UniProtKB/TrEMBL annotation:
<dbReference type="Pfam" id="PF00144">
    <property type="entry name" value="Beta-lactamase"/>
</dbReference>
<dbReference type="InterPro" id="IPR012338">
    <property type="entry name" value="Beta-lactam/transpept-like"/>
</dbReference>
<keyword id="KW-0732">Signal</keyword>
<protein>
    <recommendedName>
        <fullName>Beta-lactamase-related domain-containing protein</fullName>
    </recommendedName>
</protein>
<feature type="domain" description="Beta-lactamase-related">
    <location>
        <begin position="30"/>
        <end position="222"/>
    </location>
</feature>
<dbReference type="InterPro" id="IPR050491">
    <property type="entry name" value="AmpC-like"/>
</dbReference>
<dbReference type="InterPro" id="IPR001466">
    <property type="entry name" value="Beta-lactam-related"/>
</dbReference>
<feature type="signal peptide">
    <location>
        <begin position="1"/>
        <end position="21"/>
    </location>
</feature>
Length: 253
């Protein structure tokens, strides 16, 4: 955490202090990041900074593939963004709900999907809402091993959730759960009438000009400039650092 705090302070000084000289500050940033990569044994890193709605700094560091010394990371290199995908899932859901008008965050999942046995026990099955899913307050632990099943899909995930026994109270505990966001993407597909990836493309990527961003489920590995993942997860987005900054336009400070 100390590494990222220091990095934030250095980057802020890049824009606040013009007297030090941009080139000097840029070099300090590069040196600091390289020390961080070496210290934590990280193969690569990409940074993008937005100021007043403009991308003012976007740079890549390290290697896309540690076995290839020439595979230099740039600000156009694709990176898997893992759980940052949840921001896209939540944003897309809100856009679809706004267009749909029939449902809201307080709508019960059972009403949307027409199922009364979605979760373990009647309480969650009958009363769990979209807000409960987004806020990780069902009391259901992660059960991440399910995601190792190569046959797992959004559709068949729905039938498995009822076997996941809660360990915390409904709406009185917090248990981070990736599977519930998988359910969110399935619900979004049902409400929007299209594949989740297609809707992210048309509702988020295209309006923001994020033309190079893609999905692990659809990306053409032979054509893209991507950083090799050393721990990969199905379904995550692949983002270009300076394109990801455009997504911040949805969340002005």
């Amino acid at each position: 955490m100390h590494l990222y705090t220091c990095l934030l302070l250095i980057l802020c000084s890049f824009y606040i202090s013009k007297t030090a000289g941009d080139n000097v500050i840029r070099q300090k940033v590069k040196e600091f990041i390289q020390k961080g990569l070496d210290c934590h044994n990280n193969p690569a890193l990409a940074i993008s900074v937005v100021k007043d709605g403009e991308i003012v700094y976007a740079e890549g560091f390290g290697l896309k593939n540690i076995s290839d010394p020439s595979s230099i990371v740039t600000n156009r290199t694709l990176f898997g963004i893992a759980s940052l995908s949840k921001a896209f899932a939540a944003t897309l859901l809100m856009k679809i709900l706004d267009a749909n008008k029939k449902f809201s965050l307080s709508s019960k999942v059972s009403d949307i999907l027409g199922k009364d046995d979605l979760f373990y026990g009647k309480l969650r099955s009958q009363y769990a809402t979209l807000e409960d899913l987004l806020a990780h307050r069902l009391g259901v632990p992660s059960n991440n091993n399910i995601r190792l099943d190569s046959s797992l899909t959004r559709e068949n995930l729905v039938g498995r959730l009822k076997y996941l026994k809660p360990v915390g109270g409904f709406r009185t505990s917090f248990y981070y759960n990736n599977l519930m966001y998988g359910l969110i993407t399935y619900i979004t597909e049902r409400l929007g009438g299209r594949k989740w990836e297609d809707m992210v493309m048309t509702e988020l990527f295209q309006p923001l000009g994020m033309t190079a961003s893609d999905f692990v489920t659809t990306v053409d590995w032979e054509k893209v400039d991507f950083a090799v993942g050393y721990l990969d997860k199905d379904g995550q987005l692949y983002e270009v650092p300076n394109e990801f900054s455009r997504f911040l336009e949805y969340f002005p400070c």
